[in-house]
Amino acid sequence: MKKRLFLSTAGLLFVYVALIAQSVPVEIISAFKKGNSDELRRYFSDNVELIILDKQSNEGRLAESNIKGFFSNHKVNDFVVNHQGKRDDSGFMIGTLSTMQGCYRVNCYLRKERNEYLIHQIRIDKIND
Fold first, then answer.
1. Which stretches of the chain are DSSP H helices?
2. What residue spans define the domains of the chain?
3. pLDDT tens, 77-128?
4. What is the DSSP letter of 71?
5. First vs last Cα of the chain: how many Å apart?
6. How far apart (Å, rounded) are the C-alpha atoms in residues 42 and 47?
7. Tens-digit pLDDT profile for residues 27-60
8. What whole-number distance in Å separates Cα of residue 99 and Cα of residue 77?
9. Calpha distance 28→7 (Å, rounded)
10. Are 72 and 66 in contact (CB under 8 A)?
11. What is the distance between the alpha carbons of residues 58 and 9, in angstroms, rounded to a whole number?
12. Neighbours of 68 (CB within 10 A)
């Protein structure tokens, strides 16, 4: 009985710590999984830096247009978060985006603004197979 109570308590503590440690909103992860630029755009900060295949854009409207163009040219099959974390008022996520054209590494950096985490930078690089 004591063993069961201990394991239950340990399990609940683990789940609680995992939820508290999550820094990237699930909606951002979902947007990458779907290749949905409109959903992703809602989490852009006022000045988001977007680097796609070594092409950089810093302006909000241009960044929105570029991410939309990427998703329309690269049909998304899946997105897997490899690592994520947070420190103070910033967070990050590193993931693998699988598309019909190949796999891409996604680095996403966030900052806490107006009591929510917003995307400050997205970098998408082709993974060499």
1. 2-21, 26-34, 37-41, 60-73
2. 24-126
3. 999 999 999 888 899 999 999 999 999 999 999 999 888 899 999 999 999 8
4. H
5. 51
6. 13
7. 999 999 999 999 999 999 888 999 999 888 776 6
8. 5
9. 33
10. no
11. 47
12. 16
């590193």: which residue's tokens?
Answer: 94
Q: Give the contacts of 101 (CB within 8 A, at least 6 positions apart).
A: 73, 74, 75
The CATH number of domain 24-126, selected from 3.40.470.10, 3.10.450.50, 3.40.50.2300, 3.20.20.450: 3.10.450.50
Burial class (CB in 10 A: 0-12, 13-18, 19+), 48: buried
Strand 55-57 and strand 116-126: the pairing is unpaired
Alpha-carbon span 21 to 14, nearest angstrom: 11
Strand partners, 87: 90
What is this structure's pTM?
Answer: 0.78
DSSP structure string for 77-99:
EEEEEEEEEEETTEEEEEEEEEE
Amino acid letter at 54? D
**Strand, helix or coil for residue 87:** strand
- Which structure tokens are listed for 41? 């755009």
